[in-house]
Amino acid sequence: MLLSFLLPSFVYSQETLSGKEIMTLVDERPDGDDRHSVMKMTLVNKRGRERVRELESFSKDYGKDRKSVMVFKAPADVKGTAFLSWDYDDPQKDDDKWLYMPALRKVRRISGTSRNEYFMGSDFTYDDMGDRNVDEDTHTLLGEEVIDGHTCWKIESIPVDAEDMYTRKIYWVDQQSHLVLKGDYYDKDGLLKHYRVLAFAQQDGIWVALRSEMDNVSRNHKTFMETSSIRFDTGLKDRLFKVSTIQRGRIP
Description:
13 strands
């Protein structure tokens, strides 16, 4: 997702990149061959009431495809719930997604319109939780803006699939890290959600979003994601990313 995070931003400003080229930089930003993170998800409703959930996330690359699994560790009412996703680089191939619910001892396959449902009460849909191929959208460079002191490219992305949940998305891509620092999501009724990176840094030479917020203006609800630790290239085993593994509920 990043060609060279060590190069200063002015290297890229010498030439005009297209919207697609910029989003390709985002997609190809180096993030290791596998990654393991410990995270906290905080849900905030319209009354300001908070619900905090602790989880671990694992992901591994298989060529241009990626497999990932998230497992909830706390509180007790969601402990053991696991989400498995196989994200394919081929835009013509639907990603595979499953949710394991320990209370029911059942694995549910997430498909069709279910992909637009909100994940575990958060403001991220199941589709939001996976990787998206650059060719699934048409990207247009709208200009440059400064976000929190960082010079960003402003990109409009319109889904190729007319049935997509979002009619368009506006992204602000940091010219140095190639992280998306801000995003506005629109549906047929107008602005739906705001995304914002609140803190980011380099870990082992790789840029990482440490805190982010998704503000769902349609639901008056927010989700904060915070990463407390992350490790890259730890040699994750293939068996971690199998349906049978999440069904046993014994993910490390």
